[in-house]
Structure formats: C-alpha cells, structure tokens
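User: Here's a chain of 443 residues. Predict its fold as tokens.
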Amino acid sequence: MPHQDLDVLVIGAGAAGLAAARDLSVAGLKVEVLEAAGRLGGRVYTLHEALSPVPIELGAEFIHGRPRELFEILEASGLLFCDSTDRHWHLRRGELIKSGEFWQKLEQLMADMKKVGPADCSFQDYINSLPDDKESRETKSIACLFVEGFHATRADRISVQALLKLNAAADTIDGDKQFHILSGYDSVVEWLWQQAKRHGTRLQLNTIVKEIGWKTNRVEAICLTKDGVQQAAATRAVITLPLGVLQTPCEEAGAVLFDPLLPSDKKEAVNSLAMGHVLKIIFRFRERFWEKLTLPHDGTRKPLWELGFIHSADHQFPTWWTRLPVRAPIIVGWVGGPQAERGDNMLDSATDSLASILSVTKATVLQNLEQSYFHDWTSDVFTRGAYSYVPVNCVEAQASLSRPLANTLFFAGEATSQDHIGTVHGALASGHRAANEILELMN
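Assistant: Prediction complete.
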C-alpha cells in the first residue's frame, strides 16, 4: 500500500488526476494515485475489440477544437489523429432539410443570447422569450435538442450566462472543429500515466476511497481494497472525484466521507452545480449498409454515402454519427438531457430510432448488427452521471468548488473548469491548475 511519506495523494486516475500526478512528479514530489476502478481513464473508456476496425469509445470520443492541453500531448506523444466529419444532416418528418440554412438560423439564435444582458436565465426561458411562429418554432426545437444533447443538460436548468461563457471560450480554440484519436482516447490517458510513472508516481487500482480525513498539511485516506481496509497518507491531496460522486449522500454506494465535513461554502458549490446524463450506444455492423441507402431531399433522393452526423428531434435517440472520414461499420447513437434520464429499453429505443431515421425496417438493422456497446455512466457509482453543467445563477459555484481548503485539499476535474466544463481538455487544465497551486506553495 502507499508510502507514508508521500507529498501528494491524487484521488482518481482520470484525465485531471493523471495530469496533476504527472506535473507534480516531474517537479520531484512523491505522488500516489488512488483509483476506485480497475482501469485508468475515468470517463475516458476505450475498448479495443479484435473484431472492430476502430476503437470503441464508451465515454469521451471527440477532441473539441484545438485545446492546447490536448494538442501538446498529441505533439509530444506522436499519436495520430484525424479531423472528424463536419457533415450535419437534419431530418424533418422523414426528409432531409437544407443543413446550411438550418445552421445559419441556429447560429443566429445562439448569438442572440448575448442580448439577454447581465441577468441570468435558463436556456428554455431564453427560447420562450423569442418570437413564436411556425418557422422559428422548428429552429427553437432543434436548438433545445442541441443544447440538451451537447451539454448533457436540461434546457430549463442550464444557465444562459454559463453558455455564453462556454461559447466564447470554445471560439478561442476553434471549437467548431472536432478530431478523433485513431488509436483511441485511452492513448492520451496511457501517455500521461507513463510520464507520471517514469517520474516515480505510484498507482493503486481497485482502491475505493471511503473516507478522507484532513487537517492542515495532513491527509489520510481510508480505502477499501481486495486485501481489506487500508490507509494512505500524505501532506496534501488532489481531489478529482466526479461531481456526481461529491454529491452522493454518505450512506450510498460510492460516496466519500470527508472528516471534517467540507465547509458550507464548498458543499454549497458542490450542490449548486448539476451532473448531466447521456445515453450513448455504439453499433458495430457486418457492413456499412447505410451507404447504399437514400433519403428524400428537396424533391430528389440523397445518397447516404457521405453520412456523417444525422439529427432528428422526432426520435428518442435523436443524434447519430459514423466514423467518417474513416469508413468503419460503426454508427453511434446519442441522447442527452431529460430523455437520457429515463434510459428504459435502451436497445429497443436505439434500434427503433435508427431504423426510422434510415427509413428501413428494424429487422434490417438487427440483421446487420453484430455487436452493441454501452456503459451506464449514471448508474456507475464511481461517476454518477456523464459530465457536469452550470444551472441558472450558479456561475460562481465553479470558482468556489475549485478553491483549495487550508492549502491541503485541492480540487480538480471537469466540473471545476470554468471555461471548458464537461470536456477532457477542461479536466486536463484543471489538473494542471491544481498541481501548480501545490507547487507554488513550495517555492
């Protein structure tokens, strides 16, 4: 079990925890990472299936934009990545609509959020304040679908001021671009771990932290391992527990008890933020059968040879994408927000949705289907959701959550990223921040 003379305990071996561990160990500190699961990565969860030509991403999949934190790793590691398709098609009552015109209206609607002024409101309230006619109603419906899906949120809860802040930050990194890592997102995680390990970081997997006792310059973690209850101690700790775990009542599975309890302002920050929910299902087919299909479009038929993303607000799984430009027999289904919170009969709902969107029978989908993949992040006691978002009038909660306690407990993770919440690069940036906070104390 861990050394007793550690400088820093890192709780969690996701992107934030490994980024912090790497920085701290490179600086010469003695670091130990404690991870509840039996693998690295947290909400980066990549499967390498022998029968799949591409990695299966059960969690994070895309690099959004050109964030420095990720691109520095790609450059240093030599990992190969490629642009993801930017083809977004939209289906209305079984017919493809003109995407360019649609996106212009959607972008204008999002840009007009700046007119709400300094007062905060929910995205749903903002939508309700706009003129209501047949044409704008459709744009507003798709806008809600986009916000709830992309941000894993509820339109009636997410803060417009937070969205404006996120959109501005995304613009600085070309956030409209997306990339795939060809060897899988776990390659980034593995590179971080190898760097940390090379500089002396120790790692304990299958080590469930049950309690964190702390006072100034002293942290003791009580852990449940396969060998029973054990302890780890250090001068300081970086806490990268997902927001959903921080919010879990102490009597429930996966909860972590702080002793003494977190102060009221920290607890208020934890409870002010919200964990979003997503259902993501990956279908691996015998062949790319959709490339032979067509859908009605503008009085003719549009072939699906170049199918990238396709959206339909009329279906329980409203968003699907292929791996273009890589032509793999993989289609991914996605739903976020309120619809993802239900999660009943997911496989049936997904196959029904895809069959209807492609205008084929459910039997056609099932006959071509070789394997489906899914991880329930909401039911996973070590995550309790997909990723976080900021409700109305809670923008300051992130800053409060990220502040250290007694220069002893330091908080990181995507929920603490004030510019890029809900992203891998936001998690990485938060890990770097927490490490820098510790290192500055030692100078």
